[in-house]
Design brief:
transcription regulation; Fungal_SecMet_Regulators; transcription; XnlR_reg_dom; 3 domains; Xylanolytic transcriptional activator regulatory domain-containing protein; 669 residues
């Protein structure tokens, strides 16, 4: 009979050199990890050893929990604690890891030999921790400092033969290189122009084939930091690819699941923070690039990060509160862009009210120190807090842009004669539109403050797209109303965009696209102003016209003359028609222009109004990217061969996020 005791005895029959006492089996396995021909160096810190063994922590967590859930499903008691320990012990690999091939060893050796000297490496890691961490968690800063010291000062360290760790260091060097200008003091020697971290990225990318199958925390961290490094230069392509790789690796390792108490509290919190940093940035980027969802929010079991003194006191830049605020905000942003199903108006209003309350609660819950006015621009927290507010106002823009476009569209259609009846805008739509306009103003002033305080807004995708969307919203709102400060905001937005785009051909094309929208906004505003005057005159004359009509009917009734037959009336009308035509006064030029603006050949109805009609045909932002084509006369509607470039332009300017993707249909009602 296979009793529990017999099964346990069989599990303990292992090779003599791997035999351990039952009471210390799990503890020993978590403290050491076999390496190629050597044991772990005595100089390794406990944190280092813990990370090395965390490679297999996903399996250690999943199996006991799965078996316990299975037992509960069949109304059985959960496994006792010692049985869980035996299961874990039986899963920890006892053999050496797979030996790298000779080509992999040569590649790794060449990369390590080209590392910068110790002082430079220390400096780059310091800069990365101080300026590059932002609102994310990359690694345990105390641990990485100790491992860096071991890597450089112990030539026999197993870290030197770990491609994931080497790739992680190179990623840190690359990201730190982007922020070295903030450490410039006095009159230092001039540095070359361009991307200073490119050499480190190229070396790190050469090791990617060696870490693809390595489901370790380090390989996840390396891919994640490389994606952040690439964000300013290529968010649409390579950066998103590395970010997706980090997310998939995190899923493979089970970081999205709530770990059991089998792991130490410090490691549980480290895994939790790393997951939420990767998941939140990937989700935020996917929204801004109009990409489909990678992970369902319902699949995420792990709770949000939380302060942990044992971990936080060793961080040179302790940003745990920033991490929590960012993760919460992206969770709200995720609900805002979720496509709405077929729900009633009451459900929709309830959903909008809930999102509005969540945003207000998020902002009110920020710590007192999270104010840009209270933080010096040189402080490490400045840009991190700036990014929080940027994404907060961005969320408000995308939450209300459909309402703003709806109001502009209906106003144009009514005043340009395409809709005979007036319209009714509900309170929630007006409220969302106002919130969208206010948020766009805040975004522009946010960038103005950054430009004035730090002297640079850097040509980054996140900055360019947010500034572009804020400018576009101002232009759309300006079709209906151009009050005080409108022209200044538009000039500010375009000026900032031109500064960010300097030297970047794709970004410069994006600026030209926004300038084209400015021309359309100006044209629509002029046409709308012309069309409103006749309508106001007709309403003013309505009481007088009604009074004269009553006089006419009364006089007609008093005449008591015999009515002519219908045939006689038709003959009379035909007889006097030439005389009526010859006596008709000429139409003033301004009225001709107005009439032309109302006609079906109007450039406005084909361009501005057609554009706004198309905006509302997109049900959600989760639409594929399309080519920007306006429905102009004699347009062939042929698809351009530069679809990829134009898709990049749409993402860069934020037009796809603003529901402009449907423009390719060229639909004009």
């Amino acid at each position: 009979m296979n009793t529990i005791a017999a099964i346990r005895r069989r599990r303990r029959r292992v090779a003599e050199n791997n035999r351990k006492r039952a009471s210390g089996a799990n503890r020993s396995s978590l403290r050491s990890m076999p390496t190629e021909g050597t044991t772990a160096s005595t100089s390794q810190t406990p944190a280092t050893l813990q990370t090395n063994t965390s490679i297999h922590s996903a399996e250690n967590i999943v199996w006991p929990r799965f078996l316990n859930k299975l037992r509960e499903a069949f109304s059985l008691d959960s496994l006792p604690g010692f049985e869980e320990q035996n299961i874990i012990t039986s899963q920890v690999p006892t053999g050496p890891p797979t030996r790298p091939s000779s080509s992999e060893r040569v590649r790794l050796t060449n990369v390590v030999d080209s590392f910068p000297p110790w002082p430079v490496a220390q400096f780059l890691v310091h800069v990365c921790m101080k300026h590059g961490v932002d609102v994310f968690f990359y690694f345990d800063q105390t641990q990485i400092s100790n491992e860096l010291d071991q890597f450089y000062n112990d030539t026999s360290s197993p870290l030197r033969s770990d491609p994931s760790f080497v790739c992680l260091l190179l990623a840190i060097f690359a990201l730190g290189s982007q922020w070295t200008f903030l450490e410039r003091r006095g009159n230092p020697p001039s540095v070359p122009e361009g991307d200073l971290g490119r050499m480190f990225f190229q070396q790190a990318s050469s090791l990617i084939p060696d870490i693809l199958e390595d489901d370790s925390i380090r390989s996840i961290q390396a891919c994640f930091i490389l994606s952040v490094y690439l964000m300013p230069m290529n968010a649409v392509g390579t950066s998103y690819l590395y970010m997706s790789m980090a997310l998939k690796k995190a899923l493979s390792l089970g970081l999205h699941q709530n770990p059991d108490d089998l792991l130490e509290e410090r490691e549980r919190e480290t895994r939790r923070r790393l997951w939420w940093s990767i998941y939140s940035l990937e989700r935020c980027t996917a929204i801004k690039l109009n990409r489909p969802r990678s992970v369902l929010s319902t699949s995420v079991e792990v709770p949000l990060p939380a302060p942990l003194q044992d971990l936080d006191r060793g961080q040179k830049f302790n940003n745990v509160l920033l991490q929590i605020a960012y993760a919460r905000l992206i969770t709200i942003m995720d609900t805002v862009v979720d496509p709405e199903s077929t729900i009633t108006d009451d459900d929709r209003n309830e959903r909008l009210t809930s999102m509005e309350d969540n945003l207000k609660e998020w902002k009110n819950s920020l710590p007192e120190g999270f104010s840009l006015d209270a933080i010096p621009p040189s402080d490490s927290r400045y840009r991190a807090v700036f990014h929080l507010y940027l994404n907060y106002y961005y969320t408000r823009v995308i939450m209300g842009k459909a309402s703003l476009i709806k109001i502009v569209r209906m106003t144009l259609r009514y005043h340009l004669g395409q809709d005979a009846q007036s319209w009714i805008i509900d309170d929630s739509t007006e409220k969302l539109a106002r919130s969208c306009k206010r948020a766009s103003k805040k975004l522009l002033y946010l960038f103005e403050g950054l430009d004035e305080t730090s002297g640079t807004t850097r040509s980054a995708f996140t900055y360019f797209q947010a500034c572009s969307i804020a400018t576009i919203v101002s232009l759309i709102a300006g079709i209906l109303e151009r009050g005080f400060g409108y022209q200044r905001r538009v000039d500010l937005g375009l000026g900032l965009l031109r500064g960010m785009a300097a030297g970047n051909l794709t970004a410069e094309m994006g600026v030209k696209l926004v300038e084209s929208l400015q021309s359309i906004s100006d044209e629509a505003s002029r046409k709308l102003s012309l069309s409103r005057q006749p309508f106001r005159q007709s309403h003013d004359e309505e009481p007088l016209s009604s009074s004269r009509y009553n006089d006419w009917t009364e006089w007609l009734a008093n005449q008591r003359r015999p009515q002519a037959s219908d045939d006689a009336l038709m003959q009379g009308a035909a007889a006097v028609q030439p005389f009526v035509a010859s006596m008709t006064p000429s139409i003033p030029q301004t009225e001709l222009e107005t009439a032309a603006g109302l006609g079906h050949d109007s450039a406005l109805s084909l361009r501005a109004l057609g554009m706004l009609d198309s905006l509302m045909t997109s049900s959600s932002v989760q639409q594929p990217l399309h080519v920007l084509e306006l429905d102009l006369p004699n347009s062939s509607h042929s698809t351009t061969e530069n679809n990829d470039d134009q898709a990049i332009l749409m993402s860069l300017t934020g037009l796809d996020v603003s529901d402009f993707a449907a423009l390719s249909s060229g639909a004009v009602e």
